[in-house]
Structure prediction request, 412 residues.
Amino acid sequence: MGFDKRDAEIVRELAKRVAEVAAFPIQEEKRRLWRALNGLRPERPMIAIDQLPWHEMDVDNELTIQSEDPFCRRLENNFRTILYLWKHMPSDMPVEPFIDIHKIIHGTSFGIEVDEYTLVLDPKSSVVSHRFTDQLQTEEDLQKIIIPQVFYDEKTTKNNLEKAHELLDGILDIRLQGYLPNIHSWDLISTWKGVENTLYDLADRPEFIHAIMKRLTDAYMSMLNQLEEQGLLGYEQISIHCSGAYTDELPAKGFNPDKPRSKDLWTFGLAQMFSTVSPTMHQEFELDYSNRWFERFGLVYYGCCDPLDRKMDIVRKIPNLRKVSMSPWVNLERGAESTGKDFVFSRKPNPAFLAMSIWDTEIVENDLRETLDICKRYGCPVEFILKDVSTVRYQPQRLWQWAEIASRVVYE
Prediction:
């Protein structure tokens, strides 16, 4: 196949550095601690950092891509990111002695392309303001949501595997990874209709919203069936919705690595635009549909930015639920009391602290300690997942300091 000598050397040298870090005994200790937390027998709170403004993070060209070949550039970016995180904010991220090459799978979309207008504040940032066109207004528009027709691009996948082996054999293991599905119906609907239009229709046209959800959920279930039947699902996830996915409980009994089942996997779901929707409507328009999905999987992570502290009565009934997101907008006391020891309290510290005009480490520490104090009171297994960081004002040291503070707090 043959790569440019310089490109290959860049990738291999970075891969060797990753392999050296992956061999440290601390990596297995971190996996063990994640397995303990996910098994509801935590030894300490765990920390993860994800979804960062990488365009603001480069220091001394640590993240500057130097190779030219597109495949090499993807690997280089991955390795540079891992090494950057390990150096500056390792938190509880295990560094693995392998890379995943994902199966190329087509036909998993639902037929509607987003039609939107955007406003950009920082041209280097992917975080923009959106105004979506309502593409689902009539019964006839429901036909725009199509049933996926899944198929595997084995040729391209094989080609990618061969490239990875050529570059990395003898340095890192290569793992062929399948599709790791989740369900996010309301994130999709919000982009197909717009949030305001959807909320009005929930109140004024509930039967129309039910029709959308029935068709979309049927499409999701068909996609899952096809992935499972064709042996295209993955297994042995290392993360689930930015959180560590290490567990002793998966895969399930009867697992066949050549044909993983949904019950061998974690999945996650969310309904972020339901923040202001009542528990009754949340159940009727979200969980009554998505529970069909959740009951198929081994373990479930539920929620994201949506505050769930007032909805735990319905959330705790989700099949196979293990982790519940507790966003910056929850009442911590109410959330912890309603979670107890039954689920992982997946706390999302407020990323706005990193975007303030003045960086205040005291606010960060007090916020973390408040969560820990309340969770101890109710016996909650707890993790801190810092994510959705849109800006650090081009001061990456803020994130490094956040990680230092969090590590100090959870080890005390």
Q: What stands out?
A: DSSP finds twelve helices and 14 strands in the chain. The first strand starts at residue 46 and ends at 49. The mean pLDDT is 97.
